[in-house]
Design brief:
alpha/beta; Rossmann fold; 2 domains; 3-stranded parallel β-sheet; 11 strands; 44% helix; 16% strand; binds guanine
């Protein structure tokens, strides 16, 4: 059984990003700059943001944290995004999700300059992805595609199942796989008999958001399982897939931690340097 380890793949992406960051910094006299926005006090978000900032430092990218406590209003958040949109020194903006309930994700994304959308969540960037001419790709699905390529798991002509239909993982994941010539089935909480689809699939990407929901009974011996889930339970981290149950019974599986998580961070930095280059090229026109 193959352990689909995300760490060496993420490291190789970061090495490439670091080279591009160095070239950018030499050319423009300053590094690419990611503004990181934290709204509220979600403990898991605090860990993810720290990891993203550490990765920025590793590749020589500048990051600046903007924190809004949970009592702040949507108007205050909009004002911050507007300020970052027009700040010529900022190339990428990331608003960590989830936010406290009285904030609107849609409003935040609508107000963001799509050329600074490091996550690739803005409707314009998702529309470009749907149209087959992506500008930036949502980081987690982009990272999953890189992992599949790295381990020579070809999806062309294969049946691939995605579980979960979120805007940030499931839907763009299905789009990227389709663009790579997979035949994609998108399953979700209302799908009847998920096993009927997953047992026969070449690859299953699980982004259901339910800890350890999927055990070995869901998968066939020839299936590669990519676990996008990330849950903090009793001081431990686990995914949507019950790794121990599947060990040795599937063709390959990505662990949590050590799987997709590191890829999400690496692709965020890939997107940020790509956007920084687009913005600087436009400034010259
Ligand atoms: N929350 C969970 N995943 C993500 C992500 O990729 N980006 C942001 N901004 N928030 C998230």
């Amino acid at each position: 059984m193959l352990t689909i380890d995300g760490r060496p793949v993420a490291e190789s992406v970061l090495v490439e990003v670091a080279k591009d960051v160095k070239k950018f910094t030499d050319n423009y006299g300053r590094p690419p700059h990611l503004a990181v926005v934290n709204v509220g006090d979600d403990p898991a978000s605090a860990i993810y943001l720290r990891n993203k900032e550490k990765a920025c430092a590793q590749v020589g990218m500048q990051s600046t944290r903007h924190s809004l406590d949970k009592e702040r209003s949507q108007e205050e958040l909009d004002a911050l995004i507007t300020k970052l949109n027009s700040d010529g020194d900022v190339h990428g903006i990331l608003v960590q999700l989830p936010m406290p309930k009285h904030f609107s994700v849609d409003a935040v994304l609508d107000s963001m300059n799509p050329l600074k959308d490091s996550d690739g969540f803005h409707p314009e960037n998702l529309g470009l992805l749907m149209s087959g001419r992506p500008r930036v790709k949502p980081c987690t699905p982009y990272g999953v595609m890189k992992m599949l390529q790295h381990y020579d798991i070809s999806v062309s002509g294969q049946n691939v199942v995605v579980i979960g239909r979120s805007n940030i993982v499931g839907k763009p994941m299905a789009q990227l796989l389709t663009a790579a010539n997979a035949t994609v089935t998108l399953c979700h909480s209302k799908t009847k008999d998920i096993k009927k689809f997953t047992k026969e699939a070449h690859v299953v990407v699980v982004a259901a958001g339910q800890p350890k929901m999927f055990d070995a009974s869901y998968f066939g011996p020839n299936t590669f399982v990519i676990d996008v889930g990330m849950h903090h339970i009793d001081g431990k981290i686990c995914g949507d897939v019950d790794f121990d149950s599947c060990k040795g019974k599937v063709k390959g599986i990505s662990p949590v931690p050590g799987g997709v998580g590191k890829m999400t961070v690496a692709m965020l930095l890939r997107n940020t340097i790509d956007l920084a280059l687009i913005q600087e090229a436009r400034r010259k026109l």
